[in-house]
Amino acid sequence: MADYSITIFNESNDDAIYYLFQEPPKADKADDQNIFTNIYGASPSIQSGDGSNVVFAIHKEWFAICGTPPAPLAQGVKVSSSARESVLLGQSDAQPPQLGTVEFIHANDNSPRFVDAKVSVTSALGGFGITTDDSFSYPNERHFFVGVGGRDPTNGTKVVPTVVVEAHPNTAYTFYPKSIYWICSGTFEAGEIVDIKTITQKVEVDFSKEFPDVAYTHNSFGDFVKQASRKSRMHRL
Predict the structure, then answer these.
(1) DSSP of 189-208, one letter per residue?
(2) What backbone phi and psi angles, to 5 degrees, belong to 146?
(3) Cα angle 220, 181, 55; round to 5
(4) b or e along 75-106 (b: 16 or more beta carbons within 10 Å of the residue's beta carbon)?
(5) Of 5, 72, 148, 210, whose Cβ has the fewest other Cβ atoms within 10 Å?
């Protein structure tokens, strides 16, 4: 069962596809300019009017991911992960306090993978780690990346990248993901790297300040207007 949901009602007078992406987290050992945000969820085309809507079902669960994209990481490149591991974030308010997971990556046959025997922990509050070894070089022809993954809000059995960074050898990354998301409409693809700053009509949804279920109406001006709960014909993903 999902922890959060975002419902978008289409009253824009046009068919629309809706997208979900995550606020880029703080990431130690990664330059802010090299933290790439991926389209996390994509709806089918939603008809306007008559209560038509889509629901993104979001799981508060985090994954360490790694992989090899088809081109160097940049806006417009579509990314999918080749390996994933479920991780815990460090928490001081748990009893006993919870340490965050640190996953270890080795590149075998020019392909990055997690090494279960070398999993460790971190005391970083709200964070988890990914550590690389010297089994690969940078740059490399396969453009290795590491990052954060989440359960696909359109299909909870899949894990998709939400944020990725270029992987460097002998580097210890710490990621601090948050339950802050953005919604928009457009012509993107799931997994595509986007530049949040270039998307002018979007809305931030911060679940640290919101109820777990929120709804917005996409109106004819292109704006997303927050709504009270309402009954309707739902296209739940």
Answers:
(1) -TTBEE-GGG--SEEEEETT
(2) -130, 165
(3) 60
(4) eebbbbbebbbebebbeeeeeeebbbbbbbbe
(5) 72
- The CB density around residue 217, as the number of other CB atoms within 10 Å, is 17
Sign of CA dihedral 108, 149, 22, 8: positive
Instruction: Give counts: helices (H), strands (E), the chain.
Output: 0, 20
Give the three-state DSSP class for 92: coil
Residue 37 burial by CB count (10 A; 0-12/13-18/19+): exposed, middle or buried? Answer: buried
Cis peptide before 139 (omega within 30 of 0): yes
Structure tokens at 213: 């279920």
The alpha carbon dihedral of 141, 74, 19, 125 has a sign of positive
Single-letter residue type at 128: F
**Predicted TM-score of the model (pTM):** 0.91
CA gap 96, 187 in Å, rounded: 46
CA distances from 23 to 61, 80, 126, 151, 213 (A): 15, 18, 15, 16, 18
- Cβ-contact 208, 177 below 8 angstroms: no
Centroid of chain to Cα 142? 22
